[in-house]
Write a structure and sequence with these properties.
Length: 329
């Protein structure tokens, strides 16, 4: 029986994986802690580990895993910037490249509407029986220019939604999908052109050395005054200090974030009763016209079902000696 050590486990992980595991029969142990160099010794005697976005598998962790007999790291997510593939040695790595692009694109849209129509603010008001409208003036998305950075699975769904609003969509990607561009009716432009012409910018590219801090003081300077920025991809795409400065001086007019540069110690945890705070996160949370969700974009029942089923199948394929299309080399 394949022994799997789960890290960063939440109750919903257990719920979905226990259900799917009825068909697979893996021997699963759920750990609440994240996987890192300190917790890696816990993996002794396991065949596989199953991890999420905040677990860190660097060279040292891979070495401990291999020494402990772990043969597989199964990511139950799409992004894999937290895994140092160059130093994986003989440990194999799989992921779930596609579980629901709709979940993430729809969440990006939810954040956008929250910002453009100040829904977070009206919710707080009406609950207190304050039914005034002062300070809630929004703007139509219709007719605006939306810039999408990264036109992969999620970016394309987001573009489709934005086209439904009656926007002009311009996009930047290092690999152009010309067929999608024609079918969905958007135009590829150089990054600078996107930054200069967009009223709304949404990030849907992965975190790589090329995209790290792609939104920084230089790129922000090229943007329109009052631009709305949405990030449902990875926090490190945005240099937070530059973002705070641009919000403070009104260059950026609204922000919707599902991810944050230094989210690892905070997101997906209840820190209400902790004194631990992150200065930049606290500044951001105090800003008007900004909404932050806690890496929640993936969190739909459709996505969790697919994550659980595909992760179980990935593990089975590897231990059955089959070719696994979701393996990262
Ligand atoms: P994808 O691989 O289908 O698409 C990514 C696109 O980004 C590709 O078209 C690629 O060519 C493009 N790209 C790569 N490097 C680029 C660069 N330097 N500049 C511009 N474009 C570049 O991935 P996807 O499924 O659409 O997911 C996109 C990202 O969303 C993931 O990498 C992940 O970080 C993030 N994500 C977040 C959540 C969440 O819950 N917030 C959930 C899933 C995925």
């Amino acid at each position: 029986m394949v022994k799997v050590a789960f890290f960063n486990t939440k109750e919903y992980d257990k719920e979905f994986f226990n259900e799917y595991n009825k068909n697979y029969g893996f021997d699963i142990t759920y750990f609440e802690s994240e996987l890192n160099t300190e917790t890696a010794p816990l993996t002794k005697g396991y065949d596989a580990v199953c991890i999420f976005v905040h677990d860190k598998v660097n060279k040292e962790t891979f070495e401990i895993l291999e020494k402990n007999g772990v043969k597989l790291v199964a990511l139950r997510c799409a992004g894999f910037n937290n895994v140092d593939l160059e130093h994986k040695g003989n440990v194999r790595v799989v992921r779930v490249p596609q579980y629901s692009p709709y979940a993430v694109a729809e969440h990006a849209c939810a954040l956008l509407l929250n910002v453009t129509r100040k829904l977070y603010k009206s919710y707080q008001r009406t609950r207190k029986y304050n039914f005034t409208l002062d300070g809630l003036l929004g703007f139509d998305i219709h007719g605006k220019t939306v810039g999408v950075i990264g036109t992969g699975k999620i970016g394309k769904v987001f573009i489709k939604i934005m086209k439904g609003f009656g926007t002009r969509v311009i996009a930047y990607d290092v690999f152009k999908d010309e067929k999608a561009s024609q079918e969905l009716g958007f135009e590829y432009v150089p990054l600078d052109e996107l930054l200069t012409n967009s009223d709304i910018i949404s990030l849907h590219c992965p975190l790589t050395p090329e995209t790290e801090n792609i939104i920084n003081s230089n790129s922000i300077a090229k943007m329109k005054n009052g631009v709305v920025l949405i990030n449902c991809s990875r926090g490190q795409l945005i240099d937070t200090n530059s973002l705070i400065e641009a919000m403070s001086n009104g260059k950026i007019g609204g922000v919707g974030l599902d991810v944050y540069e230094d989210e690892d110690e905070f997101f997906l945890r209840d820190m209400t009763n902790s004194y631990k705070r992150d200065t930049n996160l606290s500044i951001l949370l105090s800003m008007p016209n900004l909404i932050i969700t806690s890496h929640q974009a993936f969190f739909t029942s459709e996505a969790l079902n697919k994550i659980a089923s595909d992760t179980c199948q990935n593990i089975k394929d590897i231990f059955d000696g089959k070719v696994c299309a979701n393996e990262l080399k």
